Amino acid sequence: MSFHHKANQFLERMPAGTFDHVRESVTTAFGVAAGFKEKVEKIVADKRLSDTGHKEKIVDVLRGGPISHLKQLRRIAGERLKALEETRAKCQPVLDKSDMFAEVQRQEIRAWLRGMPEAERLRVAYETPDRMVREAIAFAIPALSGLNDEAKAFVVSAMIQDAHGERLAEINHLSEIYEAETLAIDEATADLRRASGLEQAAFSRVWETTAE
Predict the structure, then answer these.
(1) Buried/exposed code over 168-202 (b: 16+ C-beta within 10 A; e: otherwise)
(2) Helices and strands in the chain, H and E counts
(3) Is residue 30 classed as helix, strand or coil in its secondary structure?
(4) Rounded Cα–Cα distance for residues 165 and 130 (Å)
(5) Strand, coil or helix: what is 148?
(6) Distances (CA, A) of 182 to 76, 191, 212
(7) Are 71 and 113 within 8 A, CB to CB?
(8) What are the domain boundaries of the chain?
(9) In sequence order, which residues have a C-beta less than 8 Å from that of residue 16 and are 6 or more positions away?
């Protein structure tokens, strides 16, 4: 399978709404691998070089651009994913600690929950739409409500979804796009390694010691 054909396969599987700059990144990554493969074929065909000479020349070409280019593409994709995860992490329930009356209410709700039979307590935790009940569970250790970590996590997740559902859906979609981009770049990097003829350990050493 040609590198260009593989690039097209990845592009066809990209999520709907994938940005042009991401498609260009994927195309570029496989183009780098394809261009390197052509250079390797010319090096190998040079009968003036020994096997060791071929290998040294191939490594020189690797360091001369292909690795740097792919490392840059991989870094940019990784930074995009990291930024999305940082945004996701900020989508957390917020408690107004200055409202002491509300805190008294939350304490009363936690006592009310603890006094319930376990099955009823869990039903309330998993089904209630009441904001105060959810806050009482979410902003205290689970034991104070007579609940377990799983039930509290469910309540927190429901609160996050209610408050940030649209934003989270957007983050999830963007994450799918950039994860697909990363996967394509990694596959192009694997193609680069295979074209070089180097074992994985040797290729990794060249990769790690080549500046972006």
Answers:
(1) eeebeebbebbebbbebbebbbebbbebbebeeee
(2) 9, 0
(3) helix
(4) 17
(5) coil
(6) 9, 14, 17
(7) no
(8) 3-91+168-208, 100-165
(9) none
Q: How many residues does the chain have?
A: 212
**Of 76, 69, 63, which Cα lies nearest the Cα of 207?**
63
List of residues 6+ apart from 80 with CB closer than 8 A: 174, 178
DSSP alpha helix (H) spans, 90-139: 100-114, 118-127, 131-138
- Residue-wise pLDDT for 59-76, tens only, equals 999 998 999 999 999 999
Measured distance CA(64)–CA(196) in Å, rounded: 13
DSSP secondary structure letter of residue 127: H
Token pair belonging to 78: 């990784």
Virtual CA dihedral for 8, 13, 16, 17, nearest 10 degrees? -40
What is the spatial distance between Cα 79 and Cα 71, in angstroms, rounded to a whole number? Answer: 12
Angle at 132 between CA 159 and CA 98, to 5 degrees: 100
The predicted structure's pLDDT at residue 165:
92
Q: Which residues contact 42 (CB under 8 A, 6 or more apart)?
A: none
- The residue with tokens 């709907």 is 16
Low-confidence ranges of the chain (pLDDT < 70): 1-3
